Amino acid sequence: MDWVYRGFETSLLGLALCLGLAACLSLGPGRVAPGSLSVTLPMLTVTAPAP
């Protein structure tokens, strides 16, 4: 019976890995208007007008 839970847990971990990879690949750097300053970190993007 332990193999059932281990298989279920492994499949959920695999699904989470695939979904995370798909999210990383589908999200790219956002479009920035010309003449603006942009700072992009792995989890945060800040865009402001250039001084």
Structure explained in plain terms:
- By secondary structure, the chain is of the alpha+beta class.
- The chain has a domain at 1-29.
- 49% of the residues lie in helices and 24% in strands.
- It is built from one helix and two strands; from the N terminus they run αββ.
- A hairpin with a 2-residue loop joins strand 1 and strand 2 (44-49).
- The longest helix has 25 residues, at 2-26.
- 0% of the residues are buried.
- The mean pLDDT is 76.
- This is Lipoprotein.
Quick rundown:
With 51 residues, this protein is α+β, with helices and mostly antiparallel strands.
Attribute tags:
51 residues, 1 helix, two-stranded antiparallel sheet, alpha+beta
Write the topology of this structure.
Blueprint: H1 2-26, E1 36-41, E2 44-49
Antiparallel strand pairs: 1-2
Protein name: Lipoprotein
Biggest sheet: strand arrangement: 1-2
Order of helices and strands: HEE
Oligomer state equals single chain
Portion in helices: 40-55%
Low-pLDDT stretches are none
- Tally of DSSP helical segments: 1
The structural class is alpha+beta
Protein name: Lipoprotein
Organism: Methylobacterium phyllostachyos
